[in-house]
Design goal:
With about 120 residues, this protein is an all-alpha fold. It is built from five helices and no strands. The protein has a single domain, classed as DNA polymerase, domain 1 (Orthogonal Bundle). About 55% of the residues lie in helices and about 0% in strands.
């Protein structure tokens, strides 16, 4: 087991003991550590985090991209206390815009009562 893998296990164990669910970090970070191990890197860097996101998602930034960086940021903050060479990805590194769906325009607000009552008949 690599040093990063052991550090990740310790990080996840600590966060869970503090009551965090870690729904995304628990499945994102092992892949990140495996990516670093494949490249022979022993330190988390901003460049490595960006390379991991791009390797998994290509050049298109999806809604998962910022969540990947957020997971790495938390892990990197933890590692910075162990390894001073660790780089913490800054906030806003990958833009995150919530994309809302267009509201259904099947009826207007003034005719809303008619829509509701029509469905009950």
């Amino acid at each position: 087991m690599s040093g990063l893998r052991q550090a990740l296990d310790d990080y996840l164990r600590l966060r869970r003991s503090l009551g965090h669910k870690l729904a995304e970090a628990a499945w994102l970070l092992p892949d990140f550590v495996a990516f670093l191990d494949e490249r022979g890197q022993t330190t988390v860097t901003v460049a490595a985090a960006l390379a991991w996101v791009r390797a998994r998602e290509g050049e298109v930034v999806t809604t998962v991209s910022p969540r990947r960086i957020t997971a790495v940021r938390g892990f990197a903050r933890y590692l910075s206390g162990i390894d001073p060479a660790t780089e913490i990805p800054p906030l806003g590194l990958l833009p995150h815009r919530q994309r809302w769906r267009q509201p259904f325009s099947g009826c207007c607000l003034s005719g809303l009562e008619g829509c509701v009552f029509a469905g009950q008949e």
